[in-house]
Amino acid sequence: MYSTHFKLDIKDIPAYVEEKLHFFGKTEGLEISELSDGNINYVYKIFDREKNSSLILKQADVVLRSSGRPLDVKRSEIEATMLQIQHKLAPEMIPEVYLYDPAMSVTFMEDVSEYKNFRYEMMDRQVFPSFHKQIINYFSKTALGTTDLILNRAEKKANVVKFTNVELCDISEDLVFTEPFNNYKGRNIVTEGNEEYVQERVYSNLQLVSEAMKLRYNFMNNAQALIHGDLHSGSIFINHNGIKILDPEFAFYGPIGYDIGNVIAHLIVPAMVCQVTDEESETKDNFINWVASTVPAILYGFEREFKKSYFDSVQEEVAKNEMFVDWYTRQIVADAKGYAGLEIIRRVIGDTKVKELETIVDHNQRLTVERKLIELASRLIINREEPGTDLHAFLSALNS
């Protein structure tokens, strides 16, 4: 019955679970609720109240939910495989996969309901003093271990083929790297009143466009490590004990700095929104100060921890040359700054917005936030390789 893909409805799930996964022992009385919050997948929580046990079922469909456009379900296999690989490298931060069903493009995985969506927590101005240590730990454990500095070179090349993610990389190459700088598909959404600003500061800024294209080229050709590929704050779940990283369906072999830059961008955006829109309060000050210290702590803490992991883990003597390691890590940090800028600009100009911007009620405040973000993002992109480009100084300018 389940040998050919079809989209599961809630009523189909109990029988499907009973056949595929003996997790609950019975399927009568299971409580099933849909948690889907995106455009390309269906997510359900299945709960046995009697045993107080639960799991998540995630299914990839063959079409986009919004438009009905066909989309290859290979992304589902990539996501499940990525979770399994990263769970071995960082089990405390990656949900466990119980079963992957390739015919139905379904992943059964650990329920992480005790963690909350990081985006919404920041929108509530919550602060997490240990987040920089946790995300650095994630990057240090998962990135280096998938490079050919650790893996056998043949194994790494085979992984590059396995994780060739054509359709979803194409989405990123358009929405992140191309359309924000050349609206050739006419899909950009520029806030009314910022049209001339965007034309002058982005579309007609030849230096900015040139640097963005360099970063795009790096994204498309630098198969450095197995990366998440879409590590925004909605893919991070958090509490005061730790984090869980979810939804790596955009995973592929790319530059390590891309994931780091995405995390940084999605800290900067809510901080800028808070600075412009929130009334003066202790909560506002605490949130701004937390972001202003967390962003550089991630960048430069990563550099320290990555080097330590490098010398502890890399076995090839010629690769342990200190000058090479310094260059390697500096390039990752520079990439991270540049990719942070690109992610910010595409969320301001592109057609895929974030709730932090969409929920700004006052039109003039939104114009101000977007202009400040574009200015900061442009500096990050253009000056990314300058050692003095300190993000703490940039974020301190939030209060100016």
TrEMBL record:
<dbReference type="InterPro" id="IPR002575">
    <property type="entry name" value="Aminoglycoside_PTrfase"/>
</dbReference>
<dbReference type="GO" id="GO:0005524">
    <property type="term" value="F:ATP binding"/>
</dbReference>
<comment type="subunit">
    <text>Homodimer.</text>
</comment>
<feature type="domain" description="Aminoglycoside phosphotransferase">
    <location>
        <begin position="191"/>
        <end position="266"/>
    </location>
</feature>
<comment type="similarity">
    <text>Belongs to the methylthioribose kinase family.</text>
</comment>
<dbReference type="Pfam" id="PF01636">
    <property type="entry name" value="APH"/>
</dbReference>
<dbReference type="GO" id="GO:0046522">
    <property type="term" value="F:S-methyl-5-thioribose kinase activity"/>
</dbReference>
<keyword id="KW-0547">Nucleotide-binding</keyword>
<protein>
    <recommendedName>
        <fullName>S-methyl-5-thioribose kinase</fullName>
        <ecNumber>2.7.1.100</ecNumber>
    </recommendedName>
</protein>
<dbReference type="GO" id="GO:0009086">
    <property type="term" value="P:methionine biosynthetic process"/>
</dbReference>
<dbReference type="InterPro" id="IPR011009">
    <property type="entry name" value="Kinase-like_dom_sf"/>
</dbReference>
<keyword id="KW-0067">ATP-binding</keyword>
<keyword id="KW-0418">Kinase</keyword>
<keyword id="KW-0808">Transferase</keyword>
<dbReference type="InterPro" id="IPR009212">
    <property type="entry name" value="Methylthioribose_kinase"/>
</dbReference>
